[in-house]
Amino acid sequence: MIPIAYSAEVAKARAEGQPIVALESTIITHGMPYPQNVETAELVEQDVRDHNAVPATIAVMDGVLHIGLEPETLRSLGQASDVAKLSRADMAACIASGGTGATTVAATMIGAHLAGISVFATGGIGGVHKGAETTFDISADLHELAQTPVTVVAAGAKAILDLEKTFEVLETLGVPVIAFGQDVLPAFWSATSDLPAPLRMDTADAIAKAQIMRGAMGLKGGQLVCNPIPADAEIPAAELAPVITQALQEAEEQGVAAKAVTPFLLGRIFELTAGKSLTANIALVRNNARLAAKIANAMKVEALSA
Ligand code: PSU
Ligand code: MN
Fold it and tell me: Mean of the pLDDT values across residues 31-46?
């Protein structure tokens, strides 16, 4: 038996068949500094509610898989310092040993699927790191998208990555990559990039229909929806490029590796932009939460008419 605890709000939504949107917890513990991490998590949950869905922030606490966190639990997680960063490889071990850990995109997809939730909002997925041809640092998020049937709404892959290689791997793995409302892929802090979108969709309904068809055809896996950051919040790619280069160089000099890479880079970019990157990150996560809530509602309508 898997020890699962639903928040009161999520338990009620499950009983009443309301649309639910999964949210991850690594962005809270490893992706943003305190107190903005907690403030953002609360705002994102409220964005989901304001768009007629119920938020389910996922984390492992003392060996229990939590689907939805009570407000005080979310606040204490946001202030805890030695929380593990869980992915597919270590999630089960953490639960089995009574541990506590925040869930990455991969682990949140696993938790969401176990709870019957098919839509999930985050900031940006992990992917192929620059220099992966020597380090082999490729996020487990990509393989998860290929096998777990959850639609993930992100602002693309984080721009600290090798975006071209990331999207190549997703194509190889058979993951539908959908740009929302535009012909090019967004690049996390920037609304556009020079990478053409493999698929484009303009409505939540079209995204829901595509995921349901995937399931009906017996095709494994989810979809990646790349939702551009709102124009008034974006940081132009040219402005960020030197900052990203500097952060990457420092990571290499300091021998930062494995799970520490992404949190280190996000933290340094926050410092080097005097907080501007965080403001943009918050805006894009909230934007993704709103779209995810619309997709969750559309999934419900489609499921009823199927
Ligand atoms: N989105 C954000 N900030 C983050 C993340 C996503 O805006 O910190 C997290 C997610 O949990 C994602 C992880 O799964 O970064 C990628 O980590 P890695 O590169 O080590 O796979
Ligand atoms: Mn990695």
Answer: 97
The rounded distance, in Å, linking the Cα atoms of 108 and 86 is 9
| CATH code, residues 4-305 | 3.40.1790.10
Q: Which two tokens stand for residue 250?
A: 């420092």
pLDDT tens digits, one per residue of 276-301 = 999 999 999 999 999 999 999 999 98
DSSP letters spanning 268-306: HHHHHTTTHHHHHHHHHHHHHHHHHHHHHHHHHHHHHH-
Reported in sequence order, the residue ranges of the chain that DSSP labels E, i.e. its strands, are 4-6, 20-23, 54-61, 64-67, 84-86, 101-103, 119-121, 151-154, 177-180, 199-201, 223-226
250 is catalytic: no
Answer yes or no: is the C-beta of 66 below 6 A from any ligand 1 atom: no
pLDDT at position 306 is 66
Q: Check if 141 has its Cβ closer than 6 Å to any atom of ligand 1.
A: yes
Q: Whose CA is nearest to atom 7 of ligand 1?
A: 123
Q: Which helix (H) or strand (E) covers residue 93, if one does?
A: helix 91-96
pTM: 0.97
- 16 included as an active-site residue: no
For the CA of 104, the nearest ligand: 1
User: Would you list the domain boundaries of the chain?
Assistant: 4-305
